[in-house]
Target: HK97 gp10 family phage protein
Amino acid sequence: MIEVKVDMNFDRAMFGSGPGAAAAANGLNIAAERLKALSVPLTPIDQGPLSAGTSVIPATPGNLLAKVHNDTVYAARQHEELGWKHTSGRQAKYLENPAEENAQELMEIVAAQIRRAMR
Model:
């Protein structure tokens, strides 16, 4: 299994259990879905279980952590093997690279949801 956690290290005291926590969870889930959308086109083997196996484990107001993961038995190996050749546009680090390259966008998605709720 391979997973990338969309975790912005929120302080629970910042939100309590009110609308801020719900907005943060919603933002994390939208960001996780965005990361999934960015990663699937990079996933080795464009048809089949590896691409189809990518999913989001959503955050909740009580657990502000969303995960993009793939539990296909060979997902971790495909992700980590930098020397393997892939068809054009496909790559190893298919979750990690888009998370790093789009970190600002993903954070802004979460921040926008929180701003809307705190108005």
Observations:
- The chain has a mean pLDDT of 83.
- The first strand starts at residue 2 and ends at 6.
- The chain has six helices and three strands.
- Helices lie at 12-15, 19-39, 49-52, 75-80, 96-101, 103-118.
